Amino acid sequence: MDIENIIAKVGGAEAMAALTGVGSEAIRKWRQTRAIPAKHWAALLRQPDISLADLTPDHTHNPAHDSEAELTDTCPDGANAALVLADGTVLWGRGFGAHTDGAAVGELCFNTGLTGYQETLTDPSFAGQIVTFTFPHIGNVGTNAEDDEAPRIAARGAVVKEDITAPANWRSSAPLSDWMKRHNVPGIAGIDTRQITRRLRDDGPQTAVLAFPANGQFDIVALRKQAQAWPGLEGMDLARDVSCTQSFTWDLGVWERPAAERTTRRRVVAVDYGAKRNILRCLVTAGCDVTVVPATASAEDILRHNPEGVFLSNGPGDPAATGAYAVPAIRDVLAANVPVFGICLGHQLLAQALGATTYKLARGHRGANQPVKDLGTGKVEITSQNHGFAVDDKSLPDGVEITHTSLFDGSNEGIRSTKYDAFSVQYHPEASPGPSDSFYLFERFVAVMDRRAEAHAPENNAKAGA
């Protein structure tokens, strides 16, 4: 079955979705598996240019996607792990980390960062994903407790090219493989990561299963079915899975960056949709006293802390799904006239609260070398990013301005409300991993709160005198 030819005959992916009564995620899955469920054939056969022969699976393989090594369902000598893609491809390698009880399934993605693999794997935004590292030498500096961005690994697996070597860094407290084993997360080495990168670049997101069984036995047919049955990230709320379950305070700043010299610190409530620790450190360093609340916190839960500002954190999954409970809370916070700053998922949720919509990117942004243009200053920032969804510029209502844009694909990277003291960016200004071009955004947030406090100072003084 030539799925792309069928889609073209119908008039494109949107026309195909409308004709068959499915969503864009279903079309993506059909492209992955190179098959259309038989229940949709009747609608397609009514099209003049489509015949039954077009819809019959032929199970042919596209050699353009292959590496030099032959892809086979039989485990080759020296291999003890497999990466099985939803389109049927099987990539054999050498497992490390934890053995799988069954298999780890998730959306396969790639990350272009040369450093920061520990921060990447513990970034809650990677929940539901198997991370392919394009840089070949992963694990060579080991792991340590200080570089974790969350209490546990969020990614469902890691894919690397070279075997994990012994750590060669004075800060290392455990080899990468041992650390992943302790967190019960598998990895696979010996994979042609360039092949995966090209496939994801050309064909879009792909579901995969990573199998590293202790007994060395593989049921490839079952693994293919597992990959094909996984629903994908679209429509999936994962913020609940990675958020804290109760409120707490955070007072640690950035290690090598001096804290702002301030006589008064600003009270900030950070809503944890999957917050990275370095974001909280940056808020403290910029001059904030931080209270963290769960993703499901209501506006009443947030406002009872009497915040001078509310921060909306990064996180995983589909913003439209998380928005079902997050957006009403954010709208009530805005109505209470409290300044708001959002990052990544928080940016997408703020956009929804202001009336915009989000969509799934054909190619997600993941890496520490992503160029973003600040439309206000004309400056270009090199940023750290990790997102598979984006704000739809066309859906932004009056009163919301675009402030930043991606120089890779032109997608939205930042917004600002002209009605409220609210702004957000899609990328990660806390720079972990990545460059520190964008720390000014935390300082901007504090400046907004300072300005508001100064404006209300006469009023507060009068109340105190009364």
What does this structure look like?
The chain is of the alpha/beta class. It has 3 domains: 3-55, 434 Repressor (Amino-terminal Domain) (Orthogonal Bundle), CATH 1.10.260; 67-229, Carbamoyl-phosphate synthase small subunit, N-terminal domain (Glucose Oxidase, domain 1, 3-Layer(bba) Sandwich), CATH 3.50.30; 239-455, Class I glutamine amidotransferase (GATase) domain (Rossmann fold), CATH 3.40.50.880. It is 30% helix and 24% strand. It has 15 helices and 17 strands. The strands form 2 sheets. It has a 10-stranded mixed beta sheet with strand order 8-10-9-11-12-17-16-15-13-14, sandwiched between helices. Strands 1-2-6-5-4-3-7 form a 7-stranded mixed β-barrel, surrounded by 4 helices. The longest helix has 26 residues, at 440-465. The termini are far apart. The model is unreliable at 59-70 (pLDDT under 50).
Mean pLDDT: 91
Backbone CA Rg = 24 Å
Count of DSSP strands? 17
Structural class: alpha/beta
Q: Count of helices?
A: 15
- The CATH topology of the largest domain turns out to be Rossmann fold
Name of the CATH superfamily of the largest domain: Class I glutamine amidotransferase (GATase) domain
Strand order of the largest sheet: 8-10-9-11-12-17-16-15-13-14
> Percentage of helical residues?
25-40%
- Characterize the overall form: globular
Query: What fraction of the residues are assigned to beta strands by DSSP?
Result: 15-25%
Q: Look at the structure and give the CATH class of the largest domain.
A: Alpha Beta
The main sheet comes to: 10 strands, mixed
Tell me what the CATH architecture of the largest domain is: 3-Layer(aba) Sandwich
Q: How many domains?
A: 3
Low-confidence runs: 59-70
Terminal Cα separation, in Å?
A: 80 Å
EC number: 6.3.5.5
Pathway: Pyrimidine metabolism; UMP biosynthesis via de novo pathway; (S)-dihydroorotate from bicarbonate: step 1/3; Amino-acid biosynthesis; L-arginine biosynthesis; carbamoyl phosphate from bicarbonate: step 1/1
Region (CPSase): 1-266
Active site: 344 (nucleophile), 428, 430
